[in-house]
Fold these 2 entries.
Entry 1:
Amino acid sequence: MPLDVPVQSWQRDAYLVSTDLALVQVDEVNRVFESDVMWWAQGLPRDVMIKTFANSLCFGLYQVCEDGNDGSGAKPDGGHVETGGSSRTLEQVGFARLVTDGVTFAWLTDVYVLQEHRGKGLARFMMESIKAVISEWKYLRRFMLLASDSMDLYRKTLGVKDWAELGSDALGVGLLEGPAGKQPHP
């Protein structure tokens, strides 16, 4: 059964965050997964990547370019949207994925913003969009993530705490890494 979460979009300047799965540029996201940008991830066969997206709530981050006047080198396979009679091209520049039931639990993973778009508050913009969605889930029990050097971003935008800060001896965190979870080869 697919997630029962309405498609939502947020726009800030020349950037759009959307949960519309039809806009996700699968090959572009997979290209990033195979790069040093996502050193903790690995690319997947296209059909497997599509399955992961279909079983998740995806937040695509796009640079919005007016067709024929973008100057951004937008990919020819980029998404196209019609608004107010004008056609715009969307270039995938970031991504975040929630593995979730859409009610009680969400696991944030696969977060990135391309290097050339960093320093513009776009990761914060994506996290604020995620916060807007999960704040509507009145039965949400747990929102989890693993982070290395970006914990401050998640603290400030989502209000997450490090496990040790929760001060609960009653709960433990377990993690089993499967074969694809091992550190990818350099």
Note: The longest helix spans residues 122-134.
Entry 2:
Amino acid sequence: MLIIPFIHRIVNEKNMNVHNIRILTIGGRYLWEETGDINDILNQNGIYCNNIQSDSIYLCEVDTEKTNVNDIYKWSEIDINDTETFCWKDYIYFVGKNNECWLNIPKSEQLGNTNVNTILQLITNIQI
């Protein structure tokens, strides 16, 4: 199963919603894959979630009050060739008042075998 811990923040600027979605990745290139009880896996790694949605992909909205997100590297802090370190990777896009996207993530952007836009749509419920 794929586990996708994420943090989603929205700020309104000049009639646009600026979405910052931070996804926990492995080396900024891959998604977390595990088998077993999802809550045990997350909690043993110091990650606590407000909710978990599943459908072969576990989307886990990180509880930033219980989880020390600063204990996890940012993608910019690891070596470019690192494929093992867990790190946060940020995706930012702008959505206008009619739900039109003004800053698209390239359709070819992948995390492992999963399209990033598919993940972002699942998190935001916005057609990207």
Note: The longest strand covers residues 2-13.
